[in-house]
Amino acid sequence: MDLDHLPKVRSTRDQVEAALADLMRELHPGDQLPTEPELAKLLGVSRPTLRDVLRTLAERRLLVRRQGVGTFVASRQPVLDAGIEVLESIDRMANRLELKTEMARLSVIERSAMEAEAQGLAISAGGPVLVVDRVISVEGEPVADLRDVVPVGVLGKADLDEGFRGSVLDVLLTRGTPVLTHSRTEVLASVTTPQQSERLQVAAGTPVLRMVAQLFTYEEAVVDYSVSSFVPGYFRFHVMRRIVD
After folding, report:
1. Residue among 232, 230, 198, 238 nearest 89 (CA)
2. Hey, which residues does 102 pair with through a beta bridge?
3. Per-residue pLDDT tens digits for 59-91
4. E strand or H helix at 211, and its extent?
5. Domains of the chain
């Protein structure tokens, strides 16, 4: 890659970011950037300054940083836009934009509920639950790490057959029982753990939007406790708010 034409900025962080933006415009999605030492030398900046700018661009999803591999130009895919007051799966959101979703790292196990899970499901600590972990990709990019915890008896391994596309909600809605009414969702700002960073193929400590939700039936029973982490840049959630006189 010929980068001799790039200006050696030797100046502010904003100028470093502008120089990298010029470079990214010359590249294509999936192209790999030079290593940090090479870029720092070419731009005439310190590695801490360069690393800070690269981290910011990765948080904006303009770059993808893969641990032990390198830094790549991110794909320019549409943002999934949804009202936070509406409960629907990523698969349904993507279908509206005619985008392809894929599921990876699927794990379905039965075990005893951990304390937070038992509280979320309003069951006794240590009660039997089915735990469904998976990563959802849109157009080949990992965008969400999902975990659903369901009491054994509400859902079994057999319910997640070959047609399972990643949404426990869609499975329950298609089956029709129990009758679902609403979800109580807590929205949190968080960062990825090392394990989650590897699953989502982002740098450790990358900011994520985390939603912790309880899914209720018509009888007010909780049938699903979920923890969903969304990679920034791929989702835009909004909420309609009513003015009170």
Report:
1. 230
2. 137
3. 777 788 877 788 888 766 566 777 777 788 888
4. strand 207-217
5. 13-73 (1.10.10.10), 80-238 (3.40.1410.10)
